[in-house]
Amino acid sequence: MSTIDENGFLEGSIRNWMTGHQECHASLFAAIRELNRECYRFANGRERHCTSTLHTTATALFLRLMELLQGMSIVVEHGMVSVSNIVFRAYIETYFYLTAIQKDHTFLAQYLGQLHIYRKKLVNRIRNSSSLNIADLREEFDEALTRDIDATIRKQCIKQWSIEEVARIADLHDIYLTAYAILSGAVHAAPWDLESYLDYDEAGKTIRGFKYGPSDGETVRILGLAGMCMADALSAISAIHNEDRGQLCEQFRCQFQAALSTGQP
After folding, report:
1. Of 63, 76, 92, residue with least CA distance to 28
2. What is the rounded CA–CA span in Å between residue 102 and residue 99?
3. Which end of the chain is more exposed for a tag (fewer CB within 10 A), N or C?
4. What pTM did the predictor assign?
5. DSSP at 179
6. What's the pLDDT tens digit per position in 209-254?
């Protein structure tokens, strides 16, 4: 069943696989690391330049993107396709929010206002629950709290935004319809996303057993797309801070686009 030993992806024979994987895709991993360093150079000491809610929020989103990119690179190096797809989906969603705020600064208030939408949903779920385990909490979340939250939502004219609407504001709806939609299957353990664990016969019709182990089948696609998104994000956050990294980011875009176009590491 497994192409690695009983240690799985944690240690043991996976290290040998990773060495070969890193060598095969050396230029692509190197490009991701260099882009990550450029992002760090921008972010380092950035608190001195965060003079508004826009700067603070956008920079926090950018830092989240950096962490997700690093996490994605780590799991991709291990050949963990399912995990990398899950992280990639969260990465794209953060990318949507940052780009939407950069494209339309007025969206910032609505984005931050989603906290109150979330609070209302959480309070209502608990209040409507009949579970004895959260009875004490249900008493704290009384009708007065719901009224206060509703009043804040009305006062600030907050509406609930779907991620698709955010993607439209960011002018990234095509990515929502394609990559984001496909990656959602990994997050929700959709039936079609389980096929990677099945071992079919040569005709691809009969299941012979199960598969468990690393794969480099998605390495170029994931790192290539993630790199292009991160280059765009660096350009966007730089523009929000009135800095120009356009030429640098375009060089990275071209590098990752070339890898995607050829399918080569």
Report:
1. 76
2. 5
3. N
4. 0.91
5. I
6. 998 999 999 999 999 999 999 999 999 999 999 999 999 999 999 9
